[in-house]
Amino acid sequence: MKRFYSHQLILSLAFFSAIFLAGCNIKGFFIKSSDDPVWVEPGKPAASAEGEASVDMNSPGAKVYKRICNACHGESGKGMAGIYPPLAGSALMQGDAAKPIKIVLHGFSGKIEREGQTYNGVMTGWGAALSDQDIADVLTFVRSSFGNTAGAVTASEVKGVRDATAGHSKPMAESEL
Ligand code: HEC
Predict the structure, then answer these.
(1) Residue 152: pLDDT over 90
(2) Are 69 and 81 spatial neighbours (Cβ–Cβ below 8 Å)?
(3) Per the CB 3.0–4.6 Å rule, which of 8, 13, 107, 136 could disulfide with 171?
(4) How far apart are CA 76 and CA 136, in angstroms?
């Protein structure tokens, strides 16, 4: 009798702790608590202090950026002072689209001054590795991200510049853009 009793007690303890644990799980995984600061909607980028939450980091252009440009120009387009110029706030990036198109196709080199910093590096061209559509996508992404507000770039604009500069094989200097 005593034996049966303790057996029953263990079984009911196990039963109730299983219910209790399941309850914790349900609360942790399925109930969205509005005051939980780490909750992130699946598939949605976390909001950042810089107001970049509206940028679609899964767009085709963002993917090209993350794969290539990010390594030098940085996750938030700020570059590295004196080494990689910022794309965030860049007048060149947001101006006549032909200039950033030439830079991505052929590369960029020579001394430039940006926001009080001097840069004298070499960016190699990506014209052989990226399609017209990839370049249009990445430029559209950068021109509308990191606080930038310029318009979209189309694959046919990229093709136009690619055809017009076909003979070019070296990174361009600022005077050639
Ligand atoms: C290996 C490093 C590297 C990568 C990768 C890279 N860049 Fe650059 N980029 C540079 C450097 C260095 C310069 C400045 C060159 C100079 O000093 O003349 C530059 C300059 C630029 C400029 C001119 C900015 C301005 O305000 O003058 C643009 C636009 C640009 N890059 C876009 C891109 C894009 C878009 C990508 C991705 C497709 C990319 N870069 C990938 C290194 C890189």
Answers:
(1) yes
(2) no
(3) 107
(4) 19
**Is 164 within 8 Å of 100 (Cβ atoms)?**
no
Count of residues in the chain: 177
What residue has token string 């039963």? 15
CB atoms inside a 10 Å sphere around CB 153: 25
Torsion of CA 108, 167, 63, 115, to 10 degrees: 20
- Flag whether pLDDT at 123 surpasses 60: yes
Q: What is the CA radius of gyration of the chain?
A: 27
The gap from C-alpha 122 to its chain's centroid, in whole angstroms, comes to 22
* Percent residues over pLDDT 70 in the chain: 69
Residues with CB under 6 A from ligand 1: 68-69, 71-73, 84-85, 87, 90, 92-93, 100, 103-104, 108-110, 112, 114, 119-121, 123, 126, 138, 142
pLDDT at 24 (0 to 100): 45
